[in-house]
Amino acid sequence: MRALVDGTWGFAATSELTDDSVVAVARQAVAQARANRSAQVRPVALAPAAPTAQGEWKSPIQVDPFAVPVADKVALLLAANEAALKVPGVRFVNSGMSFLREEKTFANTDGTYTVQTLYRTTPSMSVTAVNPTAGDFQSRSSAEVAPMGLGYEYVTRSDLVGNAPKWAAEAVEKLKAKPVEVGRYDLVLHPSHLWLTIHESVAHPTELDRVLGFEANYAGTSFVTPPEKVLGQLKYGAPLMNIQADRDQVGSLAACGWDDEGVKPETYMIIKDGVVVDYQTTREQAPYLDWWYKKAGRPTRSHGNSYAQTWADVQFQRMPNVSLLPGAKDTTWEDLIAATDRGIAIVGNGSFSIDQQRYNAQFGGQLFYEIRGGKIVGMLKDVAYQMRTPEFWSALDMLGGKRSYQLGGSSNDGKGQPSQSNAVSHGCPPTRHRQINVINTGRTA
Amino acid sequence: MTGFIDHTAPRGLLATARHLTRDECEAIARRVLGYASADETRVTISSGTTGNTRFAVNQISTAGDSYDAVVSVRSAFGRRSASATTNKLDDASLRAVVQRAEALARLAPEDPEAMPELGPQQYQEGAGWSEATASLDPGARAAAVRAVSEPSRGANLVSTGYLEANAGAFAVANNKGLFAYRRSTAASMTTTVRTPDGTGSGWAGAAHHDFSKIDAAALGARAIEKARRSVNPAAIEPGRYTVVLEPTAVGNLVQLIAGALSARAADEGRSFFTKPGGGTKLGQKVVDERVTLSSDPFDPETPGAPFGGDGLPQRRTTWIENGVVKNLAYDRYWAQQKGVEPTGASGFRMSGGDASLEDLIASTERGLLVTRLWYIRPVDPRTILYTGLTRDGTFLIERGKITRAVKNLRWNESPIFLLNNIEGMGRPVRVSASEDGSPGAPIVVPPVKARDFNFTSTSDAV
Question: What is the ipTM of this complex?
Answer without folding.
Answer: 0.94
